[in-house]
Q: What sequence folds into this?
């Protein structure tokens, strides 16, 4: 049996590898979803995975200790921005890439902000200036306390 890559929720942080059997068990228990599949291959009701992504974010203390900053997460961006839209201040339920990914923007603390659906849809695949929007806050790397993570 081959090895399957395990990614944290968000798909950006590699956590390690597991056997195909273990990965199928994770899919069955619904703790992971297929991130990348082998084209045209399946295992029962599931596409044969090359990599799986966890459904919930797993905080990895050693990553913070190695890099000196908390690992990026969607929930972390929402917490950092206090669930307020970075463009209008309304309640935010999604994130937005300030520089769109299609234009080379990365998914990172300094390129993502919390956004409400109307502003996110209005901005679409443009920069804030192109969409006629102004950022009310500057995206930045938060402290662990800010995003609600406590080290023991």
A:
């Amino acid at each position: 049996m081959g090895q399957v890559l395990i990614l944290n929720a968000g798909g950006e942080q590699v956590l390690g590898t597991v056997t195909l059997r273990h990965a199928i068990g994770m899919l069955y228990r619904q703790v992971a979803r297929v991130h990348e599949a082998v084209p045209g291959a399946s295992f029962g009701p599931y596409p044969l995975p090359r990599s799986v992504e966890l459904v919930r974010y797993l905080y990895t203390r050693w990553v913070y200790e190695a890099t000196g900053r908390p690992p990026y997460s969607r929930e972390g961006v929402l917490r950092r921005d206090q669930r307020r839209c970075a463009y209008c201040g309304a309640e935010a339920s999604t994130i937005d890439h300030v520089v769109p990914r299609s234009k080379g923007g990365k998914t990172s603390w300094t390129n993502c902000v919390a956004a409400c659906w109307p502003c996110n849809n209005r901005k679409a695949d443009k920069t804030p200036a192109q969409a006629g929007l102004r950022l009310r806050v500057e995206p930045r790397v938060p402290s662990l306390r800010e995003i609600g993570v406590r080290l023991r």
